[in-house]
Amino acid sequence: MNNEDEFFDAITGLDSDESCEGTSEASFKDAVAEGAQRNNGSVPQENGIKTRRTTLPAPMFSRNNFSVWSILKKCIGLELSKITMPIVFNEPLSFLQRITEYMEHTYLIQKACAHSDPIDRMQAVAAFAVSAVASQWDRTGKPFNPLLGETYELTREDQGFRLISEQVSHHPPVSAFHAESLDGDFQFHGSIYPKLKFWGKSVEAEPKGTITLELLKHKEAYTWSNPFCCVHNVILGKLWIEQYGTVEIVNHSTGDKCVLNFKPCGMFGKDLHRVEGYIQDKSKKKRCVIYGKWTECMWSVDPQTFDSHKKSDRKGGADTKKQKPEETVAGENDEADDMPEVQESVAVIPGSTLLWRIPSRPAHSAEMYNFTNFAITLNELEPGMEGVLAPTDCRLRPDIRAMENGNMDEASKEKERLEEKQRAARKERARNQEEWSTRWFQSGTNPHTGSQDWLYTGGYFDRKYTDCPDIY
């Protein structure tokens, strides 16, 4: 094992689709007809948008004959960012592509832009924040660690946005991204640097970093951080994921706030995947309650209606306080933490308004790393694209491409070669006393939170890539 290699699970939230109060079931269905197919990106469009692929070149490789315990048993109590994992535990995407999945349900941002009422806008933003982590459901493979200087771009004219991301730091690993509306409605940006903890049976990721959404026409800025994510049974049993913690979305222009509680599953799994919270205005008056599941749907309802329903439903209910993963040393208890039985639907409170519902995954998703339709398209390299992309784009990484094509031996060799090339380049810079310079982002201060952030400097889409580093 080389301690210079990094490991972090694609569990940041890194994280699903219809928005807002005043949106009835009927208008939701109308929006689906117009928007849900845009999200999936796999259905031919009548307006001339090209058809994107609906499957990967090869199905995923079986992990049945491999044990992660052989690696992790040496690392209890150590920093997980320096652990090398066999490539069989990866999925054929870079972490930069994984965070691009935040944009799968961009139409929720567009709905927020269209609302005149700030509480309606906050509901749409809250639905988007939940939707952004929904693709992590059953995604137990980890993405490839981005190389320093690696980039990823995505333009989706059908969804009305373009995005650029860059790996701006190697130790600690930091990924910066910037997305913008093609018609000038919004900007969405942030930097993610997950902190991992190994609890013996599970790996918990704290998704450090601030996410910022700016609705330019309304001159509003919203910020939040994603919830914790935990992958259970990394040693024994079936892998399963839960997300938990409090997500606070702040509108820095109006003072409105949305507080969302991603609930841990609890002793009997009653709260698995559940999200519950509220929106309050600047006077701290509760304006609505938001509830649902991040794997399924989100609804909003009047606070008084919610409280009345909760009181009648609480009889005999169990305490749902957050429970931290049990801090035991793997090997002392070899029993797997069975995933609680999933309740298939959210009990809808009468008078509720649907904010978002997750679209179905492709029928063959289980053979494709549990990818969504959107995720399946992210590494597609179309004819002619190679001459347009920056030479640092993820789509050009040979190890990811080999794994996507089902060639695991080649993927493993290429991964090792690229990591060795990165180490050699770092040593050369040290010898020459040279500092690494980021290309498209610079370290600065988030103007809305005052915290350290990585800010896009512009110019990527001018297509001037002559000074890009040779990382592949």
What keywords describe this structure?
alpha+beta, 6-stranded antiparallel beta barrel, two-stranded parallel ribbon, 9 helices, 25% strand, globular, disordered N terminus
Provide a brief overview of the structure.
This protein has 472 residues and is α+β, with helices and mostly antiparallel strands.
Layout of strands and helices, then pairs:
Blueprint: H1 25-40, H2 69-72, E1 90-94, H3 95-100, H4 107-114, H5 118-131, E2 142-144, E3 151-156, E4 161-169, E5 174-181, E6 186-198, E7 203-208, E8 211-215, E9 220-224, E10 228-232, E11 240-251, E12 257-262, E13 274-280, E14 286-293, E15 297-301, H6 303-313, E16 353-357, H7 373-377, H8 398-404, H9 408-431, E17 441-445, E18 452-456
Parallel strand pairs: 1-2
Antiparallel strand pairs: 3-4, 4-5, 5-6, 6-7, 6-8, 7-10, 8-9, 9-11, 10-11, 11-12, 12-13, 13-14, 14-15, 15-16, 17-18
Helix pairs in contact: 4-5, 8-9
Q: What's the overall average pLDDT, rounded?
A: 82
Q: Which class of secondary structure composition applies to the elements?
A: alpha+beta
| Total helical elements | 9
Largest sheet: 6 strands, antiparallel, barrel
Runs with pLDDT <50, length 5+? Answer: 1-48, 318-332
Q: What fraction of the residues are assigned to beta strands by DSSP? A: 25-35%
Count of β-strands = 18
Principal-axes shape call: globular
Tell me the radius of gyration: 22 Å
How do the strands line up in the largest sheet? 6-7-10-11-9-8
Estimate percent helicity.
10-25%
Structure description:
This protein is α+β, with helices and mostly antiparallel strands and 472 residues long. Helix content is 20%, strand content 25%. The strands form three sheets. It has a six-stranded antiparallel beta barrel. The longest helix has 24 residues, at 408-431. It is globular and about 65 Å long. Residues 1-48 and 318-332 have low confidence and may be disordered.
